[in-house]
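#struct-queue
[09:14] JT: dropping the first one here, sequence first, then the structure tokens:
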Amino acid sequence: MKYRNTGKKLIIEPEGEINSSNSESFEKELRSIISENDVRNLTLDAGGLKDISDEGLKALENVLANYSGSVTIEELSPQLYKALKNEGFNKKYEIRKKMREISIEGCEIIGEGGNGIVYRLDPETIVKVYFGKKNPLDKIKQNQKVTRDVFVSGIPTTIAFDVVRVGDKYGVVYEMIDARSFAEVMREEPDKVEYYAEMIGELAKKLHSTEFKEGTLQRSVDKLYDDIDALKECGYLNQNEYARLRKLADDIPDRNTFIHQDFHPGNIMLQKGEPILIDVEDAGLGHPILDLASMYLVYVLAASSGWTKKHLGLDAKEFEKIWDTVIRTYFDTDDEKKIEEINRIIDGYARIKYIRGVARQDKVPRFIRSAIISSSKKKIFKSIDKLHPIP
């Protein structure tokens, strides 16, 4: 049998048929592989397993019954999945059917973000294909669960109904009938940019007033703590700066309102005149300032760097108009001084995420990253004592 030890997981690949003629040798070899690899997470990849008899099932259970770690049996054919379920394997171990494989060749790209690319498969479905190693299958399945929980709770979002293989990557298929991203419609209808920006502002207000039961989703403020901790570990914050930023995060009130955390025009779809969210797997609960800061990061800071032009087809000047309209709609004000103050406060929180993003750019020389981070730090600490959560 082929196997590989990742350090955190032992993956074994049984092949062919396991029956009365080879069940004893199968059991012996399986025990030997497990005993030689001291790993507490075992995955049996059954993609190459054609059949397993009652004797083979008994041999498998004999080994697994003495294994103290977690066990996952995946890539099971429908027949093998049924056989294991009939024997009660699903009550003791996690068993998974073989995933459907799809091709995205020739498919239209309708969105792109930090975790993957969204393609249109056909008029009724889209698929988000996740980037490589930072998105393992377990994480993607958890993302699918979050998407389902968000939909059930009344947030206007797509329905995630299938996890699939796309080449050497994984994807999640969503139901999406006759919809286009806000980025797309804004590009095609530049005279209506403010109209769609107002819709974004109104939707943000609706989301930020939607209450969830405590613990339903992750705490959004934890991501801010992670950013601050990472900057300290990378040497971009001294102890005093670290303490001040941690206190800034500590002072954000706890709330159980919905936070999207990546709320930009590429992740909002227009379906029959109504906005529908995609890419909600990172959604959490918390104070609206956390979402507003994430929005500002894209609409203002990333836009100024050219990111939005490359990934969303809208440049900094266009996003300046979008953001201004969103803020006026969200806070229901045309008071220029008030808008200036709102942007100053949001900028302070957003720059923490911004400098974390810059710190991750390994391809950029460290002295350049340090200069950009130093400039943003000055802006944060110049006003940090005047920052406070809004609204």
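[09:21] JT: and here's the second one, same format:
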Amino acid sequence: MLDIKFVRENPEIVKENIKKKFQDEKLPLVDEVIALDGEKRDAQKRADELRSNRNRLSKEIGNLMAQGKKEEGMALRQKVKEQADELEELSKKESELTEKITKIMMTIPNIIDDSVPIGRDDSENVEVQRFGEPKVPDYEIPYHTEIMESFGGIDLDSAGRVAGNGFYYFMGDIARLHSAVLAYARDFMIDRGFTYCIPPFMIRSAVVNGVMSFSEMDAMMYKIEGEDLYLIGTSEHSMIGKFIDTIIPESELPKTLTSYSPCFRKEKGAHGIEERGIYRIHQFEKQEMIVVCKPEDSKMWFDRLWQNTVDLFRSLDIPVRTLECCSGDLADLKVKSVDVEAWSPRQKKYFEVGSCSNLSDAQARRLRIRIKGENGNYLAHTLNNTVVAPPRMLIAFLENHLQADGSVTIPEILRPYMGGKERLVPKI
């Protein structure tokens, strides 16, 4: 969320940014919120005058009563009462205007970074760099669920009967591989200096509103009926929420945390052949990383975060590339985002396995996350990135390590997490 002062002083910059994000329907909101802000400030000014008058008149009434001038004192008391009624109306008006302003400000997008390419949607994202050589073997790569089924490792039919579409049972070696990847990712991030954390898997609406846009919330979040609680769609939500209403001394920054959690998502509108199996599901597990830092350090941390994901996938011999997300593909709170995509030998193309985002002070403003500096308090910057998110990551792993005989090799670095196993052997 932007600072209303910035919007008031830079309306053309805000409007141009809206145009860059192809959200022209929001252009009228800029003038509307500036007008509402003007009304609010006028109401505040008049209210301050009345409060000042009340204090002055109260002293006058006391003096008049002390002098025996009861009639004059009573007249002033009536004036104080009238002004008190006006002040009450002004306070009510201020509250109403504040609510309207906040609602609009929550929908005006953050100012994107100058480096962000301009484009309407993800089809116009720009490849930045490739890491590792993508290969296509001379033998067929089956669909990922067929690979898993060959190891007796997945049961979608039972999951469908128990919970419906978008759920799964992992079994045997595939379940073990799933856990091994998460454990390896945990230790990988700890070795890079991040503090390991297991957060709450539910959050209140105040945190939801602080960490994401309204459109994202509607498309993603599951609400707990009858309670002010939502299931998290990613642990970034509860991890950033950890710092709500806090003032962090500069000496304690940066806060670098890596977290494990299950994730729950509605995944509205997910269709097509690549949406089958475990590519897009309602429940999965993920290792995440977040940073809370000083504004001047956020660009540096952004590059470090996406590089962590690239390094992890390369350590598992999986080719990846980075994509710069274009303006139209950025959620409203983000100023810059890079997707990490893994190579799929079966599809002969890359697909998303992680996303790194810099939100500047947008989340901090909503959640009131401040830094205590020598010259006063100021807003922090927040960033997040996926370390690894199986089951989708398992698709890339299995396809890239599948051998002609149907076995799957285990990279040496992952073997300690698999009980020393060097490969998985199919059962059927």
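[09:30] RK: nice, looked through the second one.
[09:31] RK: The first strand starts at residue 126 and ends at 131.
[09:31] JT: good to know. The mean pLDDT is 92.
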